[in-house]
Amino acid sequence: MTTTAAGSHAAAHAAAHGAATGAAGGNLGRGEGVQSRALAGRPAHEGPGSSSGRGSRRRRRARDAEADRGILSEADWRRPLVRRGMSTVHLVMLVLLVIWGIGPIVLLAKFAVTPTQDILRTPLAVFPNGIAWGNLAEAWNDVRVSHYFLNTVWVAAGSWVSQVVVAATGGYVLSVLRPRYAKALQWAVLATLFVPAVVLLVPLYLTILDPPVGSSMLNTFWAVWLPAGASAFNVVLVQRFFDSLPREVFEAARVDGAGPFRLFWSIVLPMSKPILGVVSVFAVIASWKDFLWPLLVLPNPDLQPLSVRLPSLQGSTDMGVLMAALAISTIIPVLVFLVFQRLFLRGAGLGGAVKG
Amino acid sequence: MTTPDVTRGRAPAPEPTPVRRRRSPAAWVRRGGLSALVFALPLLLVFGVFSWLPIGRAVLMSFQETNLITTTWVGLDNFRAVFADPLLPQALRNTAWFAVLALLFGYPVPLVAAVLMSDVRRLKGLFSALAYLPVVVPPVVAVLLWKFFYDPRPEGVFNSILGWLGAGPFPWLQDQTWAMPSLVLEATWAAAGGTVIIYLAALTSVPAELYDAAEVDGASIWRKIWHVTLPHLRGVLLITLILQVIGTAQVFLEPYLFTGGGPANATLTILLLIYRYAFGQSLGADYGQATALSLLLAVLLAVASLAYFRLTRRWSTS
Question: Which residues in chain B have Cβ-Cβ distances shorter than 8 Å to A4?
């Protein structure tokens, strides 16, 4: 979280800026409406305007084009020049996108099963001297990629738990329970959005070395898990979602005798699955990508996640095995993305909605 | 034990005078104060120890010299040391150069791509998935893979491809002029997909009536893009611009893994310099100086974004 996280942290900046300008009645706050729509109004599965509209395509076509039209109108599309032009443009774009999106990954997959000599001499030839499946086994077993891989999973799981717990309980306090100090607390959380990650790097490292209570957390996973939870972006996201939930439901539950714990567990949490899904996706991606922070606080190689370990493999292993290790660490996130595509793209779009 | 009983007995009566109820701990518990505190506890602890405390500590540390055992106040010495470092202007220049190149490479392309993609009628999901795929590749993997692509020998991947077109071979990372653009190219590949998705999401929020109205007025496709689409994206465009600058000002991974700052410090960025101050020195870490430089960077960024928002607000309301 403290590292190059231009992504989530920067988006967090935007959320704060958006909030500030919105409060001041500035023009940039326009996105606020977009955001609340994206958070609250969009159904959990497929919104009419969702960018990943696979399932609804047919329905959408059948429906009046009015509701979900793009820049081009039906009349535009009927003009042969426009239609042919756009089709060509889209075809060219598709080809470019395939090269852009899949090209490097396909090359990586090829390298992973190519003998080292071939990778170095003829990187673009298609298996001139056969396939070296052994690379994968060697990477997995001898270079202990399996071990580091488990570390990565372990790090990601813990960061996920800590982020979801802090965001859900924090959002609940700030939005639903609203004790008297809620406003102050909210500003204290929002304020951290304005502090770039770089400021935290060194003092946070020293806090890990010498925490206020207990002994050094260096070389423990807690050093990665706990700071990950201090994500103001998550708290703001969840709080705004809770704000958009109907108050009547809470009141009804209270009248029926539900206490704050019951209200949280049985009413608020089940209603907030979409936003917790988004937070989870952000959390897992961020921890999977993180490099600098685990590098600093986990100097013991036995504990390091794959991303930290890979660069040090460069010198000691031959190219084929290194490529196999790279491919192995890519395959899981790519597969997860392909399976949960819609959630990912909605999450990314949501980041933008907050930014807007 | 008597006080709670008394308050409990009285509780229904002073209902309209909340001031008095707040004073009593038992009433506070009954009104949900304790459970609210329990729910606030994870946030308070985690933010307190890992966010608020380090932020405060950063300010103090920039005026101190510490080796973890003893801490001494040194006034402005850390800042003086930062400004005296001959590498600072170089790092500033490099970071600015990275940011400018990243804007040139990475700002217009996603916009054009998203506007074109928004009118894709079939396989739209495939388009966005392809654009987003590089974002999913772990950054370390991407850098190590591209490092191999940038092999300066004629047999290198990029040099082979360019060789077919009759260009090159290029030295890529080995050359002072080429190293930074090479870094930015990879960074753009890794990040552009996210921006495309953000723009696509923003494009779906453009009201259809505006397009309809423009068509009634006889607007061509270009005029619709210029007068309806782009003005509607302005908010998102303004924000992604400053976010990208804030993000690129803190770039670390690419220079650290690609070049380690070389050749001849041509890719030494500010964050790399901070890292060297704090963790990369064999002589002993200079945490104070590192913190001083990070604070300076943060202040610079804050001033820049404030000025930017002041400027663009006036501009976009007019």
Answer: 139, 250-253
Decide which of B24, B53, B75 is a domain's last residue: B75
Are B35 and B45 in contact, with CB atoms under 8 Å apart? Answer: no
Scanning every residue of chain A, which has its alpha carbon at the shortest distance from the alpha carbon of B225? A71
Domain residues for the domain of B50 are 2-75
pLDDT digits (tens, 9 = 90+) for B260-276: 887 888 999 999 999 98
Q: Inspect the interface and report whether the beta carbons of A100 and B130 lie closer than 8 Å.
A: yes
> What CATH number did the domain enclosing A148 receive?
1.10.3720.10
Residue A210 CA to residue A214 CA, distance in Å, equals: 8
Its ipTM equals 0.82
| pLDDT at site B77 | 87
Of B177, B276, B282, B140, the C-alpha closest to A309 is B140
Query: Encoding tokens for residue B67?
Result: 């080796």
Asked if omega into A294 is within 30° of 0 (cis), the reply is no
Confidence category of residue A82, pLDDT binned at 50, 70, 90: confident
| Nearest C-alpha in A relative to B185 | A100
Residue whose token pair is 């206490």: A259
User: Alpha-carbon distance A45 to A42, whole Å?
Assistant: 8
CB pairs A-B closer than 8 Å: 378
Does A101 sit within 8 Å of B134, measured CB to CB? yes
The answer on B166 and B58 residing in a single domain is: no
The answer to whether the CB of B53 falls within 8 A of the CB of A207 is: yes
Angle (nearest 5°) at CA A292 between A218 and A209: 20
Please check whether residue A237 is in contact with residue A354, taking contact to mean a CB–CB distance below 8 angstroms: yes
pTM of the model: 0.80
